[in-house]
Amino acid sequence: MNLKHHLDAIISARISEASGLDDSQALINYAREEKFGDYQANGIMGAAKKLQQNPRQLGEKVLENLDLEGIADKMELAGPGFINIFISADFLAKELNTLIQNDCLVVSSTQPQTVVVDYSSPNLAKEMHVGHLRGTIIGDALARLFDYLGHTVIKQNHFGDWGTQFGMLITYMQELQSNETSLENELADLEIFYRHAKEKFDADPEFAKTSRDNVVKLQAGDTECLTLWKAFIEVSVAHCQSLYEKLGITLTPEDIRAESFYNNDLPEIVRELDDKKLLTESDGARCVFLDEFTSKDGTPQPTIIQKSDGGYLYATTDLAAVRYRCNELNANRVLYVVDARQSLHFQQVFQVADKAGFINSDCSLEHLSYGTMMGVDGKPFKTRSGGTVKLLDLMEEGVNRAHDVVAEKNSSLEGAEQQSIADIVGIAAIKYFELSKNRNSDYIFDWDTMLSFEGNTAPYLLYAYARIRSIFRKIDQDESSGFIIVISEPEEKALALKLLQFTETMEQVAQDCLPNQLCLYLYELAGLYMRFYEACPVLKAGPAVRGSRLGLSHLTAKTLKEGLKLLGIETLEQM
Ligand code: ARG
What we know:
The protein is α/β, with parallel strands linked by helices and 575 residues long.
């Protein structure tokens, strides 16, 4: 159950009764210190202020009628008017036993929704690099999480496959073909291919002109250009797909709704905006001017929809995508996991879409922006020579470094085993490090921290999981299920409460779309387990207590495994 919401509902109702204000909020939060209990209701002060009453007096009144029988064994009024709530050990045991019996960890009460997640979405005219890492990893974790909570998830990989660079690439392909150079060979290393095409484009005005003509031809449906474009896209998509697989990202070719997908809708978008009288001509381009967007000196800033040469823009495609996601996919939430630098773009697109009536009333569009990945020097992450870091190289380095760490920590393992552990730990370390940071801030990409066995890292959690699993290798089959949890020690209670809080953590993450909250939860859970394990012998305890402690261990391992899986991280039975 979502205990936090449950307490919130009950206590909010009591505050409303006591205050006569029907929209009172209990504002339940976690107690900051053990002596203040487990949860704290902070909403009384606000209600008292509205009524100009003494908050403690209102608090007394709330407490008088507050019945948490069976859930809490103590409630007290504290400070200027908080209510401290001490959850009962028996209640926790009962709830956990239900989870064990039903073999599930989360009992979600939220209404299922259709959630569209737009993520990864690299531009295909370039090789995927570290700039796409954050969005890809965060988006995938969110997609997994919403699915786990029972929502219908529709992933959308909005590949950039239709911009002006494709004219240049097509021209280069034409040139190679006429020189009878094997295209396949040239496309084997995309990075080199782009570089060569770009060099030509910059050096040769004739080439540049043909390139520009080719964009127009492509967008008008010219067969030769389309064929070359398709051949290129195929290679590029296959390249991304293999990266996704190496990185454990669930995106598949079915999730592709690239920019080109919306090409035929674009004239219609312009027509609809025109019908709504939203379009203004400015220097030959068709634009939308909204009062919300002005520059510092107050001059209105346009959202450009169509250029004077008839070409469409990034925003036009995104308007078509909004319409598709609302009307065809029937989304309740559309989540755009995209770099913070595009925040103005999305504000504009969302506003224009709203004015144009593209958004259903029960649909929210949310830009989940994220900051930049920095190097240890505090500057955007680059190779030593200052180039962009390829994702493939980064993953390889992660695995190599993990191998050194694993070999040092466990030198008795065989070479092949060390390698297969390193394969998992290397990727896990990169992904977890990313996910454990609040996506809104920039973060420093630091190998040593992410591969450390101490702190909120993947190696720490993987190790904690493997350690619990090792207990289960020491017991008989008939002891490994049917646990009944009974709580007596404070360390057992703290662990049990944390286990029960998996549901509310997950629902919070789904609301805020901040996977770092789940990371922190798992880290704290592992820490509480360690404390429990030190204070409460498991295998040396008498039969009943041993069964209960095995049950707590089982639930902890299961929660860690499930939680990591939702973050896209594989666990290891042994490390
Ligand atoms: N292709 C874009 C880029 O790499 C990101 C696309 C994000 N999604 C969207 N619907 N605009 O910058």
